[in-house]
Amino acid sequence: MLEVERYELFAGPAYHFDLERRDFFKLLGGGLVLFLAFDHPAAAQESGRGGRGQGLPQTISAWLHISELGIVTVFTGKTEVGQNIRTSLAQAVAEELRAPIASITLVMADTGLTPYDMGTFGSRTTPTMAPQLRKMAAAARETLIDLAAEKWKVDRASITVADGRLKYSDQSVSFGELTHGQQLMKTVDEAPVTPANKWTVAGTSVPKTTARDMVTGTHRFTSDLVRPNMLLGRVLRPSAFNAKLASLDAKEAEPIKNVKIVHDGDFVGAVAPDELTLAKAIDALKAEWTADPQHSSQPSSKDLFAYLKSHPEESRQRTTPEQGSVEQGLKSSDFIREATYTVSYIAHTPLEPRAAVAEWTEGKLTVWTGTQVPFGVRSELAEAFSIPESNVRVIVPDTGSGYGGKHSGEVAIEAARLAKSAGQPVKVIWTREEEFTWAYFRPAGVIEVRGGTLKDGRIAAWEFHNYNSGGSGIETPYDVQNKKVEFQASASPLRQGSYRGLAATANHFARESHMDELAAAMGMDPLEFRLKNLKNERLRAVLQAAAAKFEWDKTKSIPTRGFGLACGVEKGGYVATCAEVSISQPDGKVKIERVVTAFECGAIVNPEHLKNQVEGGVIMGIGGAMFEAIEFDDGRILNPHLAKYRVPRFSDIPVLETVLLNRKDLPSAGAGETPIVGLAPAVGNAIFHATGIRIRSLPMVPQGLPNQPQPTA
Amino acid sequence: MELVVNQKHYRLEVHADRMLLWVLRDDLGLTGSKYGCGEGHCGACTVLIDGAPTRSCVTLANSVAGKPITTIEGLAQNGHLHPLQEAFIQADAMQCGYCTPGMIVSGAGLLKKNPHPTQAEIKEAMEGNVCRCGTYPRIVAAVQMAARTAGGQHA
Ligand code: FES
Ligand code: FES
User: Fold this and answer.
1) Atom 3 in ligand 2: residue holding the nearest Cα
2) Which run of H or of E encompasses A538?
3) What is the pLDDT of residue A37?
4) Identity of the residue in B30, B81, B129 whose CB atom sits nearest the CB atom of A215
5) CATH number of this structure's domain A302-346+441-698
6) What torsion do the CA atoms of A173, A175, A180, A185 make, to the nearest 10 degrees?
7) Residues with beta carbon inside 6 Å of ligand 1?
8) A222-292+354-429 CATH fold
9) Which of B24, B39, B105 to mutate to test the pocket of ligand 1 (most atoms within 8 A of CB)?
10) What is the pLDDT of residue A122?
């Protein structure tokens, strides 16, 4: 198995429960508390770790409280970054509890209140957390039935639950009336959950539970928070990556009224009461930086791909054993195509830049910050300040998106360091330029592919070598007897990390483009060629669904209009994408006119939001496919502004059609990532069919089409 | 200096170089207007000044003293959401919601000027607003929906 999706290292902290059993009722008031124990080790790894708290189960993934007033609160360590899990998880709970969705509150991602969670990434929330919460809510429902049966002295089988009430013949009671005066605590690992084909709340399009706060501007993102006596803070950035501070002259900055300069080793920052004073203070600091000799020759974006190939990181190589013999397969092939594909570094560019508010009280630290990994950030903070994790609390307000880009805690540490010196709470909001420079990027990569086919269209040999862009989605879903697939990480010149659909986007771009190259070499229809080599039923189904909706058989590419398709499997989701592009003459401007995406990820939880996620993935994919690329030279980012780094805007959006295949018989997989992977190759293939120009680098058309048609092999 | 925000009058001492966005957010506590770039390229900070969508991150507070300013907090009237706010909820026109206030204010400004915009007019008017989550098609749908429900009378 090649699995190198995450680049960050998550060194798991030794976890200890801060809450003792009796603390729960002190904290939450009486009522009913349920803990969910893990049912399988994989889930434990995903969401929790062994607990050391007394009287508590060893592994807990979530808990649920029904107060004496009947208010339901669910605690989970997951974070809401726009993927809408606050609503979808509430739907799952409402379903099992048979209670209105409005009666359910989710407390998410607060290390002081919620169970340990490894982080919100990898499209894992829907497949792992939702079923767990479901189980816990089902257990709560069963417990309430027990309580009612006892109260009425009737057989529990004759009691029904609906709309947040329990009923027996003409009597009925609310949750609160049952939990009133109770201090009941239970650990569950099994409970009868509702099968997907009986869902009435989940599986429907419930509006986002926080929608009203969003449209009125009342939702408080981290950057909107205010604490009493809070100051604003900012860090002085080095002149280039890896530069070291040689000297600092703060003579002009220090006298500025209400400003405090903080200098600790290489860390230099300032705090001030308002943004203008803060900017003036940072500008007045005179620092000299020296280039780190170890990084004396930093490559630029121009020589990036040669650099990646020539700087392997030996320890991070994954190879699946060769199957059959590629050499033999190639020998027997009637057509052989060989090509190299490249992908650039791109930036997540979450619209809310990294932000944190830090506050120290008697040696204890509380930080509010937008991160997808709250417990990881807690560890980072504990380590940075040499304090126990039990003295650090990280709270994550619903965040202005992440796309895999907010897995680290730099801004939290910066705010905490400044707050420590200031003796007052400090808020740090990264500027857009900082976000473009000091965050991390989606890895760049080089992919070499060689494929051979027989006259009848069967693939005889497949060789695929990925340098640095990652191993996820690297295996071909097509039937090939002779194949060799490798991933080799490189010493990346830029800091790189997770990204929505990270490696799968690159690997699908290379594979699905190359499939098209092979089809073209044989003069075969690309759809027919794929189907001929595809046994996987779920993938066939989405491919056929997309082609039908797109009316693939009626398309005919001409120089100003092209049609292309691609498909793939990633993170349990199956996707097929058909794209139509227009090419304007003579400027070579390419516009994506229409995209049909067919997607299947098991049983659908919320169709409207799923559609929204699919569309969002496709639109984000347009940027990386068409024009997004980080340019850099000599340890500096050359385009750290939205004016120079182009992201998709209204005018880039094609007509989008989404076909959702609902497989109620299959468990639900996440949908935040997979729909992105088919877009780039489908568009690239469409450009080829129109123009004969095969573009093998992402982004494909940052400046429009190249003038001269490139050779096709 | 006096700022007139959402029909309320505020007397403030504001440094001449300060941008309206930060005065709204930090001095008046109106954090609905967001920082996305500080350079006029994302639209997250959009407010209406004299009814016209304006990037508050590149507008000096001083320069709009006395003029009527409307922020996202001022769109709902007497507890009734602006039709565009309703439409955003109906059309599920958000994911993380960070671009949402700027989008709604830009859209409200457009509807004021052009109560029945075509799709192309909506896209053109809102080209300066970025939604990184990619909810653009839904935002266009929401603006059209609001235009229909308000019957062109709103704002
Ligand atoms: S913050 Fe004003 S346009 Fe981006
Ligand atoms: S909803 Fe996230 S930026 Fe628009």
Assistant:
1) B131
2) helix A537-550
3) 75
4) B81
5) 3.30.365.10
6) 140
7) B 35-38, 40-45, 55, 57
8) Aldehyde Oxidoreductase; domain 4 (3.30.365)
9) B39
10) 56
The percent helix, strand, coil of chain A (3-state, each to 5) is 30, 25, 40
Instruction: Indicate yes or no: CB of B39 within 8 angstroms of CB of A643.
Output: yes
The whole-number average pLDDT for the span B123-151 is 93
pLDDT in the model for residue A53? 30
Contact A117, A78 (CB under 8 A): yes
Secondary structure (DSSP) of A431-481: -HHHHHHHS-EEPPEEEEEEEEE-TTS-EEEEEEEEESS-STT-S--S--S
Residue of B26, B32, B138 lying closest to A612 (CB–CB)? B138
| For chain B, percent of residues with pLDDT exceeding 90 | 93
Structure tokens at A704: 């429009």
Q: How far is CA B127 from CA A619, A649, B48, in A?
A: 15, 6, 16
B16 contact A CB<8A:
no
Report CB contact under 8 Å: B101, A274: no
B108, B52 in Cβ contact below 8 A? Answer: no
Residue A710: predicted pLDDT: 44
CA dihedral angle for residue A630, residue A634, residue A636, residue A637, rounded to 10 degrees: -10
Measured from the CA of A351, which atom of ligand 2 is nearest? 3
B98 lines ligand 2 (CB under 6 A): yes
- For chain A, list residues with pLDDT below 50: 1-18, 40-58, 708-713
State whether A212 and B89 contact (CB < 8 Å): yes
Q: Where are the domains of chain A?
A: 6-216, 222-292+354-429, 302-346+441-698
Q: Which of residues 34-63 of B touch A (CB under 8 A)?
A: 34-39, 41-42, 44
Nearest-atom index, ligand 1, CA of B58: 2
CA of B14 to the centre of ligand 1 (A): 20
Give the ligand at the shortest distance from the Cα of A221: 2
Per-residue pLDDT at A207:
79
What's chain A's average pLDDT?
Answer: 88
Q: Are B46 and B56 in contact (CB under 8 A)?
A: yes
Phi and psi of A615, rounded to 5°?
Answer: -60, -45
Is the minimum CB–CB distance between A228 and chain B shorter than 8 Å?
no
Mean pLDDT, residues B80-96 taken together: 94
- Tokens for A491? 């010493």
Domains, chain B: 2-74 (3.10.20.30), 83-150 (1.10.150.120)
Measure A350 CA to ligand 2 centroid, in angstroms: 8
In CATH terms, are A222-292+354-429 and A302-346+441-698 the same topology?
A: yes
Nearest bound ligand to the CA of residue A352: 2
Instruction: Give pLDDT, residue A179.
Output: 92
B127 CB neighbour count, 10 Å cutoff:
14
Query: What is d(CA A345, CA B64) in angstroms, rounded to the nearest whole number?
Result: 41
Q: What ligand 1 atom has the least distance to the C-alpha of B34?
A: 1
pTM value? Answer: 0.89
| Best of A215, A230, A653, A679 to mutate (most B CBs within 10 Å, chain B) | A215
Q: Is domain A6-216 annotated with CATH 3.30.1360.140?
A: no
What does the buried/exposed string (b/e) look like for A435-449 if buried means 16 or more CB atoms within 10 Å of the residue's CB?
A: bbbbbbbbbbbbbbb
List Cα–Cα distances, A108 to A53, A117, A290, A416, A643, in angstroms: 21, 10, 43, 22, 35
